């Protein structure tokens, strides 16, 4: 049996840092709540970006951590339909039936919160659109349920892949969740969204703060990078959905969902069960 050679211990946050993570994460969650009524047919994604930017800087007196991150030109990511992630806000106009992920990162007082959710534009989504959004959200919630001290981090990816596959969806391998704190992506702290069978995995410890952010495709898991250097799409152009939370591992039991929104029900999150292939 292989041993756990590298631990996550040095990523643990102290109480002062955790308090700052709570504030930054709640700010990021508030941006998603604030933007919801604007996610309507006819709006340009660059307008959504502008509204979020102004809210973060002027209302929250905080910094949109995506802006300038490795040269990213905008304050949020807007990923529509077959776009998996890192869609760049621009002249694209939302239309009824679209599904869109808005990904928000907020830095406040030196700490960063990171969260994203799907929105369905209009009241008549296709069955396929509804399904991929729902399966991706269930995958996030199932992963969160396993984020307990002593659990192997690999258990998170395993349940996500299992649930996606059981629903005839696939899970993207090229992007992952991540440790988060004073930097957006902590080096050496990755949360994969698939079963990493050959890896011994790291054990979860109290005080760890990280994201789970499964990207779920209706078709194959394979990706294509667009020439803009950012936008990632499904290779087969099928729909893709993603939900993301920043969470905190507690001393025992269930994690604290730092980016929890008012529209989410904590009982639902912890009671949802995995669909398994029979
Ligand atoms: N928020 C994304 C994540 O979940 C990262 C976006 S990086 C950016 O990790 F540069 F595209 F903004
Ligand atoms: Co993230
Ligand atoms: Co994000």
Beta-strand residue fraction = 15-25%
Associated small molecules: 2-amino-4-trifluoromethylsulfanyl-butyric acid, cobalt (II) ion
In N-to-C order, the SSE pattern is: HHEEEEEHHEEEEEEEEEEH
Structural class: alpha+beta
- According to DSSP, the number of beta strands is 15
* CATH-assigned homologous superfamily: Creatinase/methionine aminopeptidase superfamily
Q: What fraction, in percent, of the residue positions are helical?
A: 25-40%
Low-pLDDT residue spans = none
Domain tally = 1
Question: How would you explain this protein's 3D organization?
Answer:
With 278 residues, the chain is an alpha+beta fold. It has a single domain (10-269), classed as Creatine Amidinohydrolase (Alpha-Beta Complex). Helices cover 27% and strands 21% of the residues. It has 5 helices and 15 strands. It has helices at residues 15-35, 45-59, 127-145, 154-166, 266-271, and strands at residues 63-64, 76-80, 83-85, 99-108, 111-120, 170-171, 177-178, 190-191, 209-212, 215-217, 223-225, 232-234, 240-242, 245-248, 256-257. Strands 1, 2, 4 and 5 form a 4-stranded antiparallel β-sheet that branches. A 3-stranded antiparallel β-sheet has the order 3-12-11, with no helix packed on it. A 3-stranded antiparallel β-sheet has the order 6-10-13, covered by helices on one side. A hairpin with a 7-residue loop joins strand 14 (245-248) and strand 15. Helix 1 (15-35) packs across helix 2 and helix 3 runs antiparallel to helix 4 (154-166). It is globular. The structure holds 2-amino-4-trifluoromethylsulfanyl-butyric acid and cobalt (II) ion (2 copies). One cobalt (II) ion is lined by residues 103, 105, 114, 116, 213, 244. One cobalt (II) ion binds at residues 103, 105, 114, 116, 213, 244.
